[in-house]
Amino acid sequence: MKEIKALGERSVSSEQIRESVVHTGDIFLLLAEAPQALSEFIRTQQFRSLVEERTRSFVGRDYIFQAIDGHIADPIFGSGYIVIKGEPGIGKTALIAKLVEQRGYVHHFNIVQQQINSTDAFLKNICAQVIVRYALPYSTLPLPQAAADSGFLSDLLSQAVDKSQDNVMVLVDALDESEAINNPNANTLLLPPTLPQGVFFVVTTRESNEVRLQVDQLRQIYINETDPRNVEDVRNYIGAFILEHGTAMKEAISSWGLEEREFVEIITEKSEGNFMYLVYVLADIRAGRLNSTNIGELRDLPVGLRHYYERHWKVMKSINPEVFENVHQRVICVLASAGEAVSLAQLKEWTQLTLGQVQSVITAWREFLNEQYTEDGRSLYRIYHTSFRDFLRETIGLTQYNDLIASHMDEKVIHYGGR
């Protein structure tokens, strides 16, 4: 049995870490120790950063967890798919991230901004994770067949069930963001139509998107913005944010001449039950970017996520239209067009701006960005939520920024190719 260093200086076995995953949910500790031949297919660092980001201020959602557990416990539903549907910003990714953090489930996040949304990436990642999580006897993936169809994945799931004393759970976020496949009869991501007894996939998708998922057993959970339980979670989220940022938030609330209860109710109403709205608006209030001077009454806040994006874009542009168009818009739209999380140096190269200008944009728009780190500690950034990227594509247009990145990549190829 492989001996590794973890949990400080104490020497522990991979089996002990595997047992720790069962009890603490920290699957990333186990995945970090996967053999190189398997770890190259697992998005450990990217997914760890995403999970940490999305669970940092997580509250509530007990009714959804209970619904998931209720389906799993139903003896009639011995295996199958649990599909969670909801509009953008309702908290689907955060929900999956919390399950990863608390329960250590095998997982895959489709992140279109980083082009982590192909069937190939999904199959390789999940197969490698299942092997590591359940200590199955494979030192690498049998390629190309492991990524050509879901046959090898189905075999692994059967082996995992036989070896495990519990249900085998697989989480797949943002099924609607998956890359389209050519076969009109195949499921999205080539998901198996039939799962072994004791195997459950929990997947999320936008409510309005029709994804191909023809399977034998399926249960659905809808997250509705107006559901009283969702509204109550919104209130609790706002209350927790006020508690965490006490001084700044109390001063802001006082400046509007409101009691905390009134503030919570107004923000709840304006959010339309959308958590991404809360992430952005509450951060702006805490930082003083939204205040009684520049918006007047709190009830003058925009309603809903889309209107918030429109207003924030206009406000940032009004400060200095020339700087905004030549610096802020350039950096943000390049980030939205990039197919991966990018460094400050890359942004500097692609935008032809100074490092100081790029850093100032990152600072000004930090709440809209996800930050992750390379192994040598460098920061990488990408757009935080798909809905903001959609807004930019529909209202600003990203074609010229896609072309800008492509031209720099072509120049680099020509430069190095001619050496």
Topology, please?
Elements: E1 3-5, E2 11-13, H1 14-24, H2 27-31, H3 36-39, H4 44-55, H5 62-73, E3 80-86, H6 92-103, E4 106-109, H7 119-133, H8 145-148, H9 151-163, E5 168-173, E6 199-206, E7 218-222, H10 228-244, H11 246-255, H12 260-271, H13 275-287, H14 304-319, H15 321-337, H16 344-351, H17 355-364, E8 369-373, E9 379-383, H18 386-395, H19 399-417
Helix pairs in contact: 4-6, 7-9, 10-11, 10-12, 14-15, 15-17, 15-19
Describe this structure in words.
- With 419 residues, the protein is of the alpha/beta class.
- It has 3 domains: 220 residues, Rossmann fold (3-Layer(aba) Sandwich), CATH 3.40.50; 77 residues, no CATH class; 98 residues, Winged helix-like DNA-binding domain superfamily/Winged helix DNA-binding domain (Arc Repressor Mutant, subunit A, Orthogonal Bundle), CATH 1.10.10.
- The protein has 19 helices and 9 strands.
- The strands form 3 sheets. The chain has a 5-stranded parallel sheet, sandwiched between helices. The protein has a two-stranded antiparallel ribbon with strand order 1-2.
- The N terminus and C terminus are likely disordered.
